[in-house]
Amino acid sequence: MYFATKSLALSFAAAAGLSGLNTLTALSAQAATRCDSGMLLGRYTLKSELNNKYVRAGIGSGAYVGAKSNSVGGSTSWETFDIYDLGNRDGLNGGTYALRSTQDPNRWVSVNSQNALKLMRGCNTASKTRLFRANRVGNILQLQSLSNQQWVIQRSNNMLYANAATMGGNVPKALQYRLTRIGSGPTSPSPQPQVNLNGWFRGNNKGVYSVQRSGNSFQMKGFLNGKPFNLITGNIQGNIINASWKNYCNRSTGSLKLRITSNGLVKVGGNPGFNTSWSPTQNPGSISNTPACQQQQPQVNLNGWFRGNNKGVYSAQRSGNSFQMKGFLNGKPFNLITGNIQGNIINASWKNYCNRSTGSLKLRITSNGLVKVGGNPGFNTSWSPTQNPGSISNTPACQQQQSQVNLNGWFRGNNKGVYSVQRSGNSFQMKGFLNGKPFNLITGNIQGNIINASWKNYCNRSTGSLKLRITSNGLVKVGGNPGFNTSWSPTQNPGSISNTPACQQQQSQVNLNGWFRGNNKGVYSVQRSGNSFQMKGFLNGKPFNLITGNIQGNIINASWKNYCNRSTGSLKLRITSNGLVKVGGNPGFNTSWSPTQNPGSISNTPAC
After folding, report:
1. Is the pLDDT of residue 271 over 90?
2. Confidence (pLDDT) at 553
3. 460 vs 539, more confident
4. What is the largest CA-CA distance in the chain?
5. pLDDT given at position 108
6. Contact 468/453 with Cβ under 8 angstroms?
7. Could you read off the pLDDT of 128-148 as tens digits, one per residue?
8. Which pick of 29, 246, 453, 490 has the fewest CB atoms within 10 Å?
9. For residue 197, which of 130, 264, 248 has the smallest C-alpha distance?
């Protein structure tokens, strides 16, 4: 059941009873239209069938809506509403309406988050909380909210809510409102004169346009310098054109919304573009139907030598639509560009002969050379014809044999350590020494002047990767994990060295049977039995915690517990010649313990 627009009156097909609504469809993803751009049906009052009072808007500070008034305050009052038909706009079903307050025209009847009806600012075809479907028998109207598909009902406090699941209910009259038309409203629509949409128009910034209208179909073809550059097509709804556009040359597309006026066209929405308005103009005369980008342009000869605008000379070759360009630096090849030609565009890829890097490149062919229009960063952005450079090599610099340092002997790191280096074929080993004792080992494979290697530390067991370049003077780090050195150079044999890492040599250790004192508090009874370890702590002569663990070399991995509060934790200790040092675990009282005298009288019973 819909509002009829022929007489701007609310008229429904006759029905024997209150009929249901067709299934609501979702709003489409089109541009939203302001509600006051819809068809104004007129100005109306609504009177409750339940309490015989007029529906009033703007009640209280929240501007709520309820059946509260005994009379109407006039054509412009809180009891009158301008009703707009928004059916079949922007994907809405037919029979969709919005109610505007006449007392406060900036606000519309809306459904809030508690489903109460109140006045709220603004309304468009995307704001479902402001939109309603209607059902009518005679002059009795029922409304259904589009936001939650619930029916508007008068509750016991006489306020209106959109929270009735059906339009019947236990008290049918609570959902029924008598509709009375009191006028045509403030802005009854009247047809506005529209510009003739068949002819030539000029954009306010650039271009002329050939415009055609056929019914509600619209087309506008743009020309620059007598050649077509874009096409705009769309559908006309009243004085609005919802359109899309495409560019003939760069293939870009977008949306456009236009308003038809008596003087031309005005842009009211869509993507940014050249123009914001178009007005009628004279036929520009001679024009072409072929876009500039499709016309044959003179192109530079792609067989010969080119020079990059930043560096290098290039040998270019074209065979049909296949393209190749080989780059030279200092007479030696460094990269190769290959691709396919489409019109004046070359879509290509490149590779570097030496570092093996690759990438993409897009070039435009002009009458003067080549211009980069896309792809990865590189040396040059343009190339122009040049003379044959004369003598060149076909072997990249990186593939030519370079003198290399002898990889059998002793090397010194630029920061610390001396290294015993050995090469056997392509196998490589470098053993590092600090203070005459080995601390790490580097092993890898040699490829040309590059060594891809890994390293390990003898003592802390850490490992990592390392990439070295062999030069005539030594080794240079070019990749891998951080480390002591970034270069190594030949040096003299350091003389006496040990093959046993410092961490594997026997160190003197404190006696772990006796009494120790913590550096902050407490004395501790310490006992060692083989690799088992126990340390019992005392405060004020009474035990407070117990530490137990296992000894591995000079490290004790232990756990502790507190006798009184039952807390537990972990502890890692290092055994030194002077005592114990904490190197890990939970926070605690002490970070070191050293031998002390027997404290004398102690208790075996905790204070708690």
Report:
1. no
2. 84
3. 539
4. 119
5. 95
6. yes
7. 999 999 888 888 989 999 999
8. 29
9. 264
Give the whole-angstrom CA distance, residue 214 versus residue 192: 19
Q: Which residue has the tokens 């009829």?
A: 4
What is d(CA 454, CA 444) in angstroms, rounded to the nearest whole number?
A: 6
Q: Which helix (H) or strand (E) holds 466?
A: strand 463-470
Q: Is the pLDDT of residue 28 over 70?
A: no
Contacts of 544 (CB under 8 A, 6+ apart): 522, 537, 538, 562, 563, 564, 606, 607
Which residues share a beta bridge with 487?
476
CATH of domain 35-183: 2.80.10.50
User: Per-residue b/e over 217-229, b at no fewer than 16 CB within 10 Å?
Assistant: ebbbbbbeeebbb
Q: Per the structure block, which two tokens stand in for 250?
A: 């760069």
Q: CA-CA distance, 528 to 512, in Å (whole number)?
A: 6
Q: What is the pLDDT of residue 7?
A: 30
Residue 26 — very low, low, confident or very high, per pLDDT cuts 50/70/90?
very low
DSSP state of 472: S
What phi and psi, each to the nearest 5 degrees, are found at residue 172?
-55, -35
Comparing CA positions, the residue from 247, 249, 267, 265 lying closest to residue 257 is: 267
Identify the H or E element spanning 552.
strand 542-552
| Percent above pLDDT 70 for the chain | 92
The rounded distance, in Å, linking the Cα atoms of 484 and 419 is 12
- Mark residue 207 as left, alpha or beta (left: phi above 0; alpha: psi -120 to 50; beta: remaining): left
CA angle 253, 259, 264 (to 5 degrees): 100
SS (H, E, C) 60-107: CCCCEEEEEECCCCCCCCCCCEEEEECCCCCCCCCCEEEEEECCCCCE
Chain centre to alpha carbon of residue 276: 31
Residue 220, token pair as written in the block: 């506008």
DSSP tag of 181: E
pLDDT digits (tens, 9 = 90+) for 210-250: 999 988 899 999 999 999 999 999 999 888 999 999 998 88
Residue 4 scores a pLDDT above 80? no
Helix (H, G, I), strand (E, B) or coil at 37: helix
Q: Are 491 and 412 in contact (CB under 8 A)?
A: yes
Rounded to whole angstroms, how far apart are CA atoms 444 and 422? 11
Beta-carbon neighbour count of residue 494 at 10 Å? 13
Tell me if 415 sits within 8 A of 488, measured CB to CB: no
Beta bridge partners of 324: 317, 338
**pLDDT-derived band at 11, boundaries 50, 70, 90:** very low
Query: How is the chain split into domains, by residue range?
Result: 35-183, 199-283, 311-387, 409-494, 514-595
Residues 379-417 pLDDT 10s: 899 999 999 998 888 888 777 666 889 999 999 999 999
